[in-house]
């Protein structure tokens, strides 16, 4: 008949078995495993945008365009504002610059991690709604 007796759950009482084509069953298992692996890889994917607190308007516009591309792909975007020298002492000013940058993003987004000071700068994470 072209079918095989395949034991699906050997630990159940009574054991579960099905009449299926072994090749088709193996193909479906491999397909499910690949799909799970792809989902696990895709969920952790993120892109990074680095800006400076003293960046010129055009530089920020270039970063905005790149960020729009990343958000259109549906990946998480990490925004990092690097602070150097005396900028590290004036966190409030830098935080205002970061919030101003985030307000000018045209695509609707959801904030995963709000802007916060960490290490040598300010970090935030966003994703498309």
Structural write-up:
With 129 residues, this protein is α+β, with helices and mostly antiparallel strands. It has 2 domains: 4-42; 45-128, 2-Layer Sandwich (Translation Initiation Factor IF3). It has 3 helices and 6 strands. The strands form 2 sheets. The protein has a 4-stranded mixed sheet with strand order 3-4-6-5, with helices on one face. A hairpin with a 2-residue loop joins strand 5 and strand 6 (121-128). The longest helix is centred in the first third of the chain and has 22 residues, at 22-43. The termini are far apart.
Features:
single chain; 129 residues; alpha+beta; Translation Initiation Factor IF3; 2 domains; four-stranded mixed beta sheet; two-stranded antiparallel sheet; 3 helices
Short description:
With 129 residues, this protein is an alpha+beta fold. The chain folds into two domains: 4-42; 45-128, 2-Layer Sandwich (Translation Initiation Factor IF3), CATH 3.30.110.
Segments where pLDDT lies below 50 for 5+ residues? none
Number of domains: 2
Major pleated sheet:
4 strands, mixed
Mean pLDDT: 89
The computed structural class is alpha+beta
How much helicity do the residues have? 40-55%
- H-E string: EEHEHEHEE
Q: For this structure, what is the CATH homologous superfamily of the largest domain? A: Translation initiation factor 3 (IF-3), C-terminal domain
Furnish the topology, listing elements before pairings.
Layout: E1 4-9, E2 16-20, H1 22-43, E3 46-52, H2 57-73, E4 76-82, H3 91-103, E5 109-118, E6 121-128
Parallel strand pairs: 3-4
Antiparallel strand pairs: 1-2, 4-6, 5-6
